[in-house]
Task: inverse folding
């Protein structure tokens, strides 16, 4: 047992940090430092810079344009990227579609889609949830009927993040409505978002942003060669996608970055005539968050190091669910801290005020962006399997109930 | 980074677990509690035979040459069965003090005796007024010819009654709260002027108050340098925190296993209570607390030897908070999930609850260390 990073791992961290420092576009970094989410162009530009370096597809094998890193290296890379703060790789491309194609795709599918996914030439979105199929995903109804050399897709998806930016969608559809078990009648399709019959409608979320969508499919033709894996075997693909190694799931770097932002603002605002940073209650709250972040950090090291030891061959580690639950609780607690530091300044949206200013007002902007981030991250314990579902997973996997 | 135990460490855990499996059922433990010493001297001898009493000592002192990790693994196994024997004060606390600060003669005289099981020790630092403040020492040691005279009193000394020798801290210079001027002394438990009043602790073990009235010790009994005891005390406390963090992890494992088993057999409303989601999710939370606590216990263990003092103190303080909170959550939940039976003296879970409560207060509780950590925020 050894908790320290090896000199090689330490050197790797330095290399990543230096590359990000030298190559992250300044306008992206400055916006994100104020707490803004990356714009589409920030994400595309940064992922292409990283792809040119061979790092964007960080979890893929070398053969398909990945760097061939160990899980510990991947964790270090993601941590440094979040701490910078830099845009995250588009997870639909890198952690979802990519591994699925590598595992289940035909050569033609791999060659056509993997390089473009790595370089973000195609922006992918995920068509899983439906109005009647959230946590109970297997109850999905969107239907695909085989008609010669293509499927005809009809139905509706919802909560489809960034569908309005997307070029392509990976989609779960029902191909056998009479299957013995409902999981056995599902297939996994790749759909060009420009196909006639697809309508994307925005859903504005409580942070005021357009991130989520409804997607309607009305007699949409999907060529049969766009199916991944066998017909009616899509549930296996979805399970693989969701249970795939989740090094980055805790997003600890983001929580750290939020605490740092709150600390620096706490020097600027007052509490009873003294800087908030001197307030004992505030300091203890930060100390508790630091303790919780440290525990999660070590748990993450344990998961990652066990993954490397098993050479990635083991079944999904139930500790991944601990990372998801505790990681999202911390994301929510740390963004909540940042909002509390802003005080009354956290309440206005300030958008027009900021636009009318001749000089930037970082305090105003950070307050507004911090609140957006707090509101948006209420979703963290809902997406990717709600935290209640994670506890169901633990009940099965660990408790055996 | 590597979290897997080595082959030797695995074998160590196996042999300790096997021995405890034979010797430490909850029923056997109850009989040990009623013995005059409050524990089993026969089990103590078995610890010696297995090499556990010399675990962290160098081989030249009859030891096993292990480190903090080996101690962690053994303490975790001890936590699973709530070992009553004075391993912690003798091997971990006193052992660390002697190992780090003892002269060659002192080590030679004491460590082999501990390792073979013939010497039990206690670490008497805490005083009634000090609460958790390590510098709050008012017991005095005054020069008396070529030796010293000790006066004062120590409280809640774990296994103070059973100890053959006691390490006592006393002020040789300076005022209450001064970092300098605290000295450690090796005092024979039978020394004239030393009296002990033993009592039962909530965790089923024995503790004692120790009164010192003109207790005479020689220069050869000074452990470490005169006036420079505090850094040794801090190291002892750090080793103690790491060891009891591991013990808490073992106790949490046992409580979670007990709770799971109970949830499968206890039937209410026609079904085992483990089939109800509200119970399942509580147990999932208990598992998460256990694993976060385990991570923190590992952090404490791997920090004990970190030469970067600021980092070490910080990591150990964090671990103390995290493990303490986890232990409190799991033990409170375990009693709750058991319902009425969890409230009884007859059933095991309450005993684990009380051991966790005692450990949480040892050398400072989570609130104390959170306050310490909060002073370093910038």
Result:
């Amino acid at each position: 047992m050894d908790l320290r990073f090896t000199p090689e791992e330490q050197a790797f961290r330095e290399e990543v940090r230096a590359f990000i420092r030298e190559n992250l576009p300044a306008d992206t970094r400055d916006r994100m430092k104020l707490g803004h989410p990356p714009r589409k162009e920030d994400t595309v530009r940064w992922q292409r810079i990283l792809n040119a370096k061979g790092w964007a597809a960080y979890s893929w094998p070398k053969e398909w344009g990945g760097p061939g890193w160990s899980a510990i290296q991947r964790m270090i890379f993601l941590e440094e990227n979040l701490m910078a703060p830099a845009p995250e790789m588009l997870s639909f491309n890198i952690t979802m579609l990519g591994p699925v194609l590598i595992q289940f795709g035909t050569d033609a599918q791999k060659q056509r889609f993997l390089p473009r996914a790595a370089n973000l030439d195609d922006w992918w979105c995920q068509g899983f949830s439906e109005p009647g199929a959230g946590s109970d995903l297997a109850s999905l109804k969107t239907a695909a009927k085989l008609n010669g050399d293509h499927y005809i897709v009809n139905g509706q998806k919802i909560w489809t993040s960034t569908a309005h930016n997307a070029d392509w969608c990976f989609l779960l559809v029902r191909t056998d409505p009479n299957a013995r078990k409902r999981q056995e009648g599902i297939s996994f399709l790749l759909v060009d978002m420009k196909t006639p019959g697809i309508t994307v409608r925005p859903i504005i979320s409580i942070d005021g942003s357009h991130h989520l969508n409804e997607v309607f499919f009305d007699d949409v033709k999907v060529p049969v060669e766009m199916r991944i894996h066998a017909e009616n075997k899509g549930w296996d693909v979805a399970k693989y996608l969701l249970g795939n190694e989740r090094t980055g799931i805790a997003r600890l770097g983001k929580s750290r970055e939020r605490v740092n932002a709150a600390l620096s603002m706490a020097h600027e605002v007052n509490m009873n005539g003294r800087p908030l940073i001197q307030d004992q209650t505030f300091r203890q709250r930060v100390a508790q968050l630091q303790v919780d972040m440290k525990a999660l950090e070590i748990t993450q090291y344990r998961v990652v190091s066990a993954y490397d030891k098993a050479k990635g061959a083991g079944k999904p580690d139930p500790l991944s669910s601990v990372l998801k639950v505790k990681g999202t609780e911390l994301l929510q607690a740390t963004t909540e801290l940042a909002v509390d530091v802003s005080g009354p300044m956290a309440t206005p949206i300030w958008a027009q005020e900021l636009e009318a200013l001749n000089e930037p007002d970082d305090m105003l902007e950070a307050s507004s962006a911090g609140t957006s981030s707090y509101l948006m991250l209420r979703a963290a314990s809902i997406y990717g399997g709600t935290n209640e579902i994670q506890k169901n997973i633990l009940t099965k996997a660990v408790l055996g109930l | 980074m590597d979290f897997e135990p080595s082959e030797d460490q695995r074998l160590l855990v196996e042999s300790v677990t096997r021995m405890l499996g034979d010797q430490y059922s909850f029923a056997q433990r109850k009989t040990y509690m009623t013995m005059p010493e409050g524990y089993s001297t026969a089990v103590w001898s078995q610890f010696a035979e297995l090499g556990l009493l010399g675990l962290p000592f160098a081989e030249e002192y009859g030891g096993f040459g292990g480190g903090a990790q080996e101690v962690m693994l053994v303490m975790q196994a001890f936590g699973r069965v709530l070992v009553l024997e004075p391993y912690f004060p003798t091997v971990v606390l006193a052992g660390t003090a002697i190992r780090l600060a003892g002269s060659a003669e002192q080590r030679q005289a004491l460590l082999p005796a501990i390792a073979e099981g013939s010497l039990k020790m206690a670490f008497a630092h805490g005083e009634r007024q000090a609460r958790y403040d390590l510098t709050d020492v008012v017991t005095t040691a005054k020069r008396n010819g070529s030796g010293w005279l000790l006066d004062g009193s120590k409280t809640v000394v774990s296994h103070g009654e059973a100890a053959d020798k006691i390490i006592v801290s006393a002020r040789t210079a300076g005022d209450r709260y001064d970092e300098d001027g605290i000295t450690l002394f090796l005092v024979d438990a039978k020394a004239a002027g030393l009296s002990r009043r033993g009592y039962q602790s909530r965790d089923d073990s024995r503790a004692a108050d120790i009164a010192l009235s003109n207790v005479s010790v020689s220069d050869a009994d000074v452990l470490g340098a005169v006036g420079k005891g505090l850094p040794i005390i801090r190291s002892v406390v750090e080793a103690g925190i790491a060891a009891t963090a591991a013990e808490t992890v073992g106790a949490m494992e046992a409580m979670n296993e007990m709770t799971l088993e109970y949830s499968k057999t206890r039937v209410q409303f026609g079904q085992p209570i483990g089939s109800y989601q509200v119970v399942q999710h509580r147990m999932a939370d208990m598992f998460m607390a256990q694993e976060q606590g385990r991570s923190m216990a590992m952090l404490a263990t791997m920090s004990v030897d970190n030469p970067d003092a600021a980092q070490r103190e910080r990591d150990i303080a964090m671990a103390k908070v995290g493990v303490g909170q986890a232990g409190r959550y799991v033990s409170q939940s375990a009693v709750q999930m058991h319902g009425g039976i969890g409230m009884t003296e007859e059933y095991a879970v309450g005993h684990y609850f009380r051991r966790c409560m005692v450990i949480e207060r040892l050398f400072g509780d989570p609130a104390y260390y959170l306050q310490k950590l909060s002073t370093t925020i910038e």
